[in-house]
TrEMBL record:
<dbReference type="InterPro" id="IPR029510">
    <property type="entry name" value="Ald_DH_CS_GLU"/>
</dbReference>
<protein>
    <submittedName>
        <fullName>NAD-aldehyde dehydrogenase</fullName>
    </submittedName>
</protein>
<dbReference type="InterPro" id="IPR016163">
    <property type="entry name" value="Ald_DH_C"/>
</dbReference>
<dbReference type="InterPro" id="IPR016161">
    <property type="entry name" value="Ald_DH/histidinol_DH"/>
</dbReference>
<dbReference type="GO" id="GO:0004030">
    <property type="term" value="F:aldehyde dehydrogenase [NAD(P)+] activity"/>
</dbReference>
<dbReference type="InterPro" id="IPR016160">
    <property type="entry name" value="Ald_DH_CS_CYS"/>
</dbReference>
<keyword id="KW-0520">NAD</keyword>
<comment type="pathway">
    <text>Alcohol metabolism; ethanol degradation; acetate from ethanol: step 2/2.</text>
</comment>
<dbReference type="Pfam" id="PF00171">
    <property type="entry name" value="Aldedh"/>
</dbReference>
<dbReference type="InterPro" id="IPR015590">
    <property type="entry name" value="Aldehyde_DH_dom"/>
</dbReference>
<feature type="active site">
    <location>
        <position position="269"/>
    </location>
</feature>
<keyword id="KW-0560">Oxidoreductase</keyword>
<feature type="domain" description="Aldehyde dehydrogenase">
    <location>
        <begin position="34"/>
        <end position="492"/>
    </location>
</feature>
<dbReference type="InterPro" id="IPR016162">
    <property type="entry name" value="Ald_DH_N"/>
</dbReference>
<comment type="similarity">
    <text>Belongs to the aldehyde dehydrogenase family.</text>
</comment>
Amino acid sequence: MTQPVTISIAATGRKITVPTGLFINNEFVPSVDSKETIQCINPATEEVICSVVAGSEKDIDAAVAAARKAFKTTWGKNVTGWERSRLINKLADLIERDAQELAELETLNNGKPVKIARDFDIGDSVQCLRYYAGFADKIVGQSIEIDNKTKTAFTRHDPIGVCGQIIPWNYPINMWSWKVAPALACGCTIVMKPSEITPLTALKLSELVVEAGFPPGVVNTVPSLGSVGGAALSAHMDVDKVAFTGSTVTGRRIMEAAAKSNLKKVSLELGGKSPHIVFESADLDQAANWTGLGILYNTGQDCTAGSRLFVQDTIYDKFINILVEKFKQLKVTNGFDEEAGAGPVVSKMQYDKIFSYIEAGKQQGAKAVLGGEKRPGKGYFVDPTIFVDVKPDMKIVRDEIFGPVLAVAKFSTEEEAIELANDTSYGLGAGLHSNDASQCMRVSQALEAGTVWVNQYNLLSNNVPFGGKKQSGIGRELGSYALEEYTSVKAVHWNYGEKLDWPL
Ligand code: NAP
Ligand code: MG
């Protein structure tokens, strides 16, 4: 079963041909030993879109072998930075050319609105590829003085080698680009494992890898179950690095597998329970808009979701009224609806998980002032939900829900706000709104997070590093920092004058 399928999109009349095999050595191939398939579901209708091959452990071996061969022959240290740059730029151009088609496929499988998939996820992905294409011929080491008359040393930033990349379902194209772009720029080769829930766009992007002209084996894509393909990649003896975005539980497993196998380098971008603070001096209308973006963007399926909101007591009631009105304005509907601001959540499992948290919130005495009820009919739609007067030990305050569910609490002093904000095992994002510049500086310094937003929330930029503190992750993506994740520093000591006397 490696024949491509043609999918018809009713809303736009478009027909999209999607490969269904494993992408190894620039070809779509069947599994070497497995008959398993992955069924892809449209979360807006609960209908089956198609099935793709589910790769096995042996398929991961084949993909790693292809990636190793390419690394040793056509890629790695065998290709100039200019050539890598040219190919990455070409790939960016092709994604830009196909943006509408890719966006529709993303919407079909993930649920997010087409315009958001196209203009944000894909727009950002194209920019990300171009940003790292620019770095490909600018990866430089240091020249280090040892002794001016006899010795010098220099460093080379070598590509780390074969990289396993395991990506989640919330931003399938975007996370693909964040991982692929810096790896290729540095000269690494890739075995990509997309989420079993959303494998279609990674397969479609693989076609563009061929069209762009990358040599076989540089990028390989193996859709498979996490416990099979993801586990095999993390434990593989010939994988030099694994980059992961997803849950903290899975991240821990990956790190353990890396430690127990070949001590491969690991970068982890994990979950969060990010705090968002509104001080009394803030522009409340703006703060409410950013709060909405923080928790409702991507239907709350966002690792940086600002899911714990702390509002100063002097403006608490007023701000909640503004927030409720704002949240009601968001249209949560089928992503093919032109007016959709958010789509369904990605799967039945996520839908059930979110509602189990909503139930827990109600049972533990939090008050829902908006949402919190199931809709009738098909599709995994969850309406914006606001719980107020939450307590620090409630499940909806402690756990990552990964849905449009906001937990709001009151504070009176700046110290108290900081204390509450940092009371979590996570440290991915944090936000604050205030018109007092000194307060903004004090609080942004005190918040324990990899990213702090001041008078905004959730916006990232390809040239600014992103990653977590505490149990939100290890390593950084984006910016020049990401290059460190894909390079290995070699020091060369060079003697041109010292004679060694012997015996010692
Ligand atoms: P997950 O297990 O962390 O999935 C992320 C990726 O890891 C997927 O490609 C998954 O493959 C793979 N994976 C699963 N088990 C693995 C293993 N043992 N070894 C290596 N890779 C493995 O997340 P999930 O179960 O889909 O979602 C659960 C929760 O994780 C969400 O509710 C949310 O809280 C969090 N999450 C966070 C992010 C984020 O951006 N930080 C993204 C997604 C989910 P399969 O999909 O094939 O299982
Ligand atoms: Mg899973």
